[in-house]
Design brief:
A two-stranded antiparallel sheet has the order 1-2. It has helices spanning 4-20, 44-82, 86-130, 146-150, 159-166, 172-177, 181-187, 223-258, and strands spanning 201-205, 211-215. Helices cover 62% and strands 4% of the residues. By secondary structure, it is mainly α.
């Protein structure tokens, strides 16, 4: 375990590196231009739609921007690790780098689910406006998933672009590069981060259904190898935001037409 002096020294080094670091090629999303005018339409249904959309937009902006910040943090900590004395490397990994790395690797899945949930909740309001026979209670929040979003592909012209970009977040390439870390971390035993061989004894199931047991082992994830993929994932998140922003604006036009504000 790091002692107090070591812990403070590491964080001093971290903040010094952060101040001297260059801005990443990826960009932070601006807040001020992503607003929906409250007087665009009228009526209690519009109030609900507007409040939901505004809240979801803000939360998605926060999620994307925090993801980029955390990647930058992780990148700096990796640089510090590479220059760390061998005798305290493991302490640095286990106490600081591994928890942050675990969270950042899991972030694409988290952000993707937020986009799915936000898109469905917003679109449900507009579909009820277009078709009054739709019961608000018909939407079961616990059952919202990617297939729910895809069910709206034919409802709005900008929805297919959104879903096509959305599936790039936490895609198979990312899962493979990270050795399926997020899923294994939540449901089984994940590979270790930076050091150690995980699960040295395993159960193996063959294609014919037979089962055997034996020595194996999972190599530790090297975060340096994952950083470029994390930046790619962040860009997919940004691209997805612009796509959801486009189809939200398409839906705003529907509200403006059906519930116009004539004042």
């Amino acid at each position: 375990m790091l002692n107090r002096e070591q812990y403070l020294d590491f964080h001093t080094e971290y903040y010094n590196s952060l101040e001297n670091s260059t801005n990443p090629e990826n960009s932070y999303l601006p807040y001020d231009i992503h607003n929906i005018q409250a007087n665009t339409a009228t009526g209690p249904q519009w109030l609900i739609f507007h409040q939901l959309a505004e809240n979801f937009i803000r939360e998605l902006l926060n999620a994307n921007n925090q993801f980029l910040t955390n990647i930058r943090k992780l990148e700096i900590w990796i640089e510090i690790l590479n220059e760390c004395h061998e005798e305290i490397k493991n302490d640095l990994i286990f106490e600081i780098i591994s928890p942050l790395g675990s969270y950042v690797i899991g972030t694409p899945y988290i952000v993707k689910q937020r986009y799915i949930y936000s898109a469905v909740m917003i679109t449900h309001q507009t579909r009820m406006l277009q078709d009054p026979t739709i019961n608000d209670g018909s939407l079961k929040e616990r059952k919202i998933g990617i297939n729910t979003v895809k069910g709206y592909r034919d409802s709005f012209s900008s929805m297919p672009q959104f879903t096509d970009i959305l599936v790039q977040i936490d895609n198979d390439d990312f899962v493979n590069v990270t050795s399926n870390y997020r899923n294994l971390n939540q449901h089984r035993i994940p590979p270790r981060i930076e050091v150690g061989l995980g699960m040295t004894f395993n159960r193996f199931r063959a294609s014919d259904g037979s089962v055997s047991y034996g020595l194996g082992g999972t190599q530790a994830l090297r975060l340096t190898d994952i950083i470029p993929t994390l930046y790619n994932q962040h860009q997919f998140c940004n691209d997805t935001f612009y796509a959801i922003w486009s189809f939200i604006n398409e839906q705003v036009l529907v509200w403006k037409e059906i519930r116009p504000n004539n004042t």
